[in-house]
Specification:
Layout (H helix, E strand, L loop, with lengths): L1 E8 L2 E8 L4 H8 L18 E4 L2 E4 L12 E3 L12 H8 L9 H14 L5 H7 L11 H11 L2 H4 L1
Parallel strand pairs: 1-5
Antiparallel strand pairs: 1-2, 3-4, 3-5
C-alpha cells in the first residue's frame, strides 16, 4: 500500500506516494538521490543516518518515510549554502574531524541540532549529544574539537 506524503526536504516541498514500509533513508537516498545520509548498521546503533526532523535528530534507518508526513527533514546536503561549507562543516574540515568520512554526515547533523539548542555547549554536552554516533576511525577528540570550534563566537573562531 502507498500513502501520499507531503514533506519538506531541505526546504523544498515534496508530495509523493510512498510505500507504507519505505524507510526514510531509502526515500532520501533512492527517491530523492540525497546520498549524503549514510546507511551504516541498519539497526539504529551507529548514527551514520542521522537527519533532522523538525530540528530534532532522528535515525533515518529506523524511521518510516510516511511517519514524517508534514514535517521538515534536513539532510547534510542542507548545510551547504551557496556552494560554501557551513561553519560546522568547515570546522570538521579544519580540525580534522573526519577520517574516512562515513560517520561525518550523521555527526554533523547531530552536532547541528545541539548547536541550535545550545550555541556554546560544554565538552560533556557535546559528548552526550554525539553519544548515539559511532566513529570507527577516530578517538572522537578531533570531532569534539570541531564542534567546539564551530560553537566559538565568530571573532574567536577566526
Amino acid at each position: 500500500m502507498k500513502t501520499i506524503v507531503p514533506i519538506r526536504v531541505n526546504g523544498q516541498l515534496r508530495e509523493e506516494a510512498v510505500p507504507d514500509n519505505l524507510l526514510l533513508i531509502d526515500y532520501l537516498r533512492d527517491t530523492l538521490h540525497l546520498t549524503g545520509t549514510k546507511q551504516g548498521c541498519d539497526g539504529g546503533e551507529c548514527g551514520a543516518c542521522t537527519v533532522l526532523v523538525d530540528g530534532q535528530p532522528r535515525l533515518a534507518c529506523l524511521t518510516l518515510a510516511a511517519s514524517v508526513a508534514g514535517s521538515h527533514v534536513e539532510t547534510v546536503e542542507s548545510q551547504l549554502k551557496n556552494g560554501r561549507l557551513s561553519r560546522l562543516q568547515q570546522a570538521f574540515h579544519e580540525k580534522l574531524g573526519a577520517q574516512c568520512g562515513y560517520c561525518t554526515p550523521g555527526m554533523i547533523m547531530a552536532s547541528e541540532a545541539l548547536l541550535r539548542r545550545n550555541p556554546e555547549p560544554s565538552e560533556e554536552e557535546i559528548r552526550a549529544a554525539l553519544a548515539g554516533n559511532v566513529c570507527r576511525c577516530t578517538g572522537y577528540v578531533k570531532i569534539i574539537e570541531a564542534v567546539q570550534a564551530a560553537s566559538a563566537p565568530a571573532e574567536a573562531a577566526s
